[in-house]
Amino acid sequence: MCDKRLCSCRQKSAASNVDPEILRKLEEGYKLLKNSDSPSLLKKYLTRDVFDKLKKRKTSYGSTLLHVIQSGVENLDSGIGIYAPDPEAYTVFAELFDPIIEDYHGGFGPDDIHPLPDWGKPADMGNLDPSGNYVISTRVRTGRSLAGYPFNPSMSETHYYEIENKVTDAFGKLEDDLKGQYYPLVGMEKDVQKKLIDDHFLFKEGDRFLQSAEACKYWPTGRGIYLNQSKTFLVWCNEEDHLRIISMQEGGDLGEVYARLVRAVTALERNLKFSRNERIGYLNFCPTNLGSAVRASVHVKLPKLSANLGRFEEIAGMYNLQVHRNRNTPELCVRLNMLPVLRT
Ligand code: ARG
């Protein structure tokens, strides 16, 4: 039977529908990118051949190659440079997504299959720093999208409202320590917003990569944050992804932080259907957030390693970790980030 999303006759029949103005912008963007010294994976893998194959394709949500590449074209300093405007984009534009996914996710090839969801045993994670001398805080987050909806650039204002309504209904069913309150951005007092941002709970507006990707349309409609009472569990609604589910607390008890995330995602999943592809796992807006889309980080004080940041970054890289220098604190603190990876 013909799989509607993948069928090439469907892609061809949509071919003539790509607006000439979009084709013009695509050609212009392609030239700009190719004449630049952009370090992005987009520049590396968007060959003329791939470009010509994809430039007239459209998904059933109406997304084009321009939606995919516009952020990387406008921000030549991007590391990746592409976003998926909807779940189908990963297959309709596979000739571009696959090599970028393979490069970023440690060799995950086009025939590899991410395993079925398995949270493992959170209790086995334990405490990373029982002495309490090094780890200031621990955070584990994941991204989830609601099945049946496109992602930011192809979302209508109604989609933003609908998603917000569905997730707030699901928040209302959370129990025990996950119970809390949803704060929509619409109508939020400026001082409340500032405090939530300063305390590192809320996202900011205006990320230039997201803006060029058309991910900030109708702002602040449909955006908001859910917080439990102790502020150890939060969910961002309609920022980069439909849902960013976050568990965090002071200290290094990764077991407790991760267990809370697992409980929360499992509870939300009882009332929401998440978008998942059997090959690349949970689907989100950015191809860096596929598979489990789980990213763990610690805010840590390591004065000796931090004294030579170059060397520290080299060592961290060997363990698939990213180092972010924290400039807001007087001590030498860094955030160590474990990257989400697709596994085979
Ligand atoms: N689009 C940006 C780049 O390519 C950010 C990618 C990763 N970060 C993210 N928030 N998805 O460099």
TrEMBL record:
ATP binds at residues 137-141, 200, 244, 295-299, 324-329. It comes from the Eukaryota. Its EC number is 2.7.3.3. Residues 134-344 form the Phosphagen kinase C-terminal domain. Residues 24-106 form the Phosphagen kinase N-terminal domain. It is an enzyme of class 2 (transferase). One of its GO terms (cellular component) is extracellular space. InterPro entries: ATP-guanido_PTrfase (IPR000749), ATP-guanido_PTrfase_cat (IPR022414), ATP-guanido_PTrfase_N (IPR022413), ATP-guanido_PTrfase_N_sf (IPR036802), Gln_synth/guanido_kin_cat_dom (IPR014746). The keyword Nucleotide-binding applies. Pfam families: ATP-gua_Ptrans, ATP-gua_PtransN. Keywords: ATP-binding, Kinase, Nucleotide-binding, Transferase. GO terms for biological process: phosphocreatine biosynthetic process. GO terms for molecular function: arginine kinase activity; ATP binding; creatine kinase activity. PANTHER family: ARGININE KINASE 1-RELATED, ARGININE OR CREATINE KINASE. Belongs to the ATP:guanido phosphotransferase family. This is arginine kinase. It comes from Neodiprion lecontei (Redheaded pine sawfly).
